Amino acid sequence: MDVFGSFALLLAFICAVYAFGGGIAAIITRHPLLVKSTRQSGIAACCLIFIATFSLEYLFFTDNFSAAYVVSHSNRALATFYKVAALWAGQEGSLLFWSFLLSIYVFSVLIAYRNKNGELMPYVGVILAGVQIFFLTLNNFVASPFKALAVPGANGAMDLVTRADGNGLTPLLQYPEMVIHPPNLYSGYTGFTIPFAFALAALLARYPGEKWIHLTRKWTMIAWCFQTAGILLGAHWAYAVLGWGGYWGWDPVENASLLPWLTGTAFLHSVMMQEKRGMMKVWNVWLVFATFILCITGTFLTRSGIVSSVHAFAQSSIGSWFVGFLIVIFSVCLVAYLKNRDYLKSESQLDAIVSRESSFLFNNLILLVSCIAVLSGTLFPVLSEAVSGSKINVGAPFFNKVNVPIGLFLLFLTGVGPLLAWRKTSLESLKRNFAWPLIVGLVAGVVIFALGCREMYSLICFSLCFFVTTTIVMEFYRGAKVIRVRSNASYLTSAIELTMRNTRRYGGYIVHMGMVLVFVGLAGVAFNQNVQKEMQPGSSIQLGKYKLVLQSFDSKPEANYTGLRLNVEVFVDNKPLMMLYPERRIFETNGETGTMVAIYSTLREDLYVVYAGQNPDTNLPVIHAYLNPLVKWIWFGGVIVVFGTLVALMPNRRAVLVLSGAQQPAPEPLVHGMTPSVTYREGHD
Amino acid sequence: MTKMRGISRPGLLILPVLLCFTGTLPLLSAFGDAQQPDHTHQLGMKVKCMCRGCNESAGGCYHMGGEFSGPCGTALGMLKKIDERIAQGNSDDLIVQSFVQEYGQLVLMETPHSGFGRVAWWIPAVALIGGFALVLIVISRWRKQLTPEPALARAGHAAPISSELLDRARAQAARDTED
Question: What are the chain B neighbours of A544 within 8 Å (beta carbons)?
Answer without folding.
Answer: 32
